[in-house]
Design goal:
Layout (H helix, E strand, L loop, with lengths): L1 E14 L2 E6 L2 E7 L6 H13 L3 E2 L5 E3 L7 E6 L21 H17 L4 E3 L6 E16 L4
Parallel strand pairs: 3-6, 6-7
Antiparallel strand pairs: 1-2, 1-3, 1-8, 4-5
Helix pairs in contact: 1-2
Length: 148
């Protein structure tokens, strides 16, 4: 499972002009399930994200987690994180999980992250979405559950 985290001061996602999810300070999480990913991958990444120290303390050091700052997460499914771009000029997405499996893992991840205590808002799975955000820092982290 792959995730791209962006620390934000605010973010929103809309589908066909309708806002379907929004947060204030917290994390935008672009999430991709790949072939072979399991609930264990989702659980591992959700736990790491909830406790990872990505926010500044009073001294300006990144010592606080999203839980510590009482932030939220906006989780957006993004199969394009599975892109294989090395061959030719058109990326391939064959590493992405099949839609049914990907949806189950995406929804399961959201439940797991909420179970860690992080308020979760979402986009709409498999929809064409517009994501707006204010990246705080900028601060962006790449995660891959297979790189443990």
């Amino acid at each position: 499972m792959r995730a791209l985290l962006q620390r934000v001061t605010e973010a929103a996602v809309s589908v066909e002009g309708e806002e379907v999810g929004a947060i204030g300070a917290g994390l935008v999480i672009l999430l991709c399930a790949e072939h072979g990913d399991t609930e264990a991958d989702a659980r591992y990444i959700a736990g790491k994200i909830a406790r990872m120290r990505l926010f500044a303390d009073d001294a300006g050091k990144t010592n606080l987690s999203v839980l510590d700052v009482k932030g939220a997460a906006l989780v957006v499914s993004q199969f394009t994180l599975a892109a294989d771009w090395r061959k030719g000029n058109r990326p391939g997405f064959s590493r992405a999980a099949a839609p049914e499996a990907a949806k189950a893992l995406y929804e399961g991840f959201c439940v797991l992250l909420e179970g860690e205590g992080v308020p979760v808002r979402t986009g709409r799975f498999a929809a064409s979405m517009k994501v707006s955000l204010v990246n705080d820092g900028p601060f962006t982290i790449w995660m891959d559950s297979r790189e443990r």
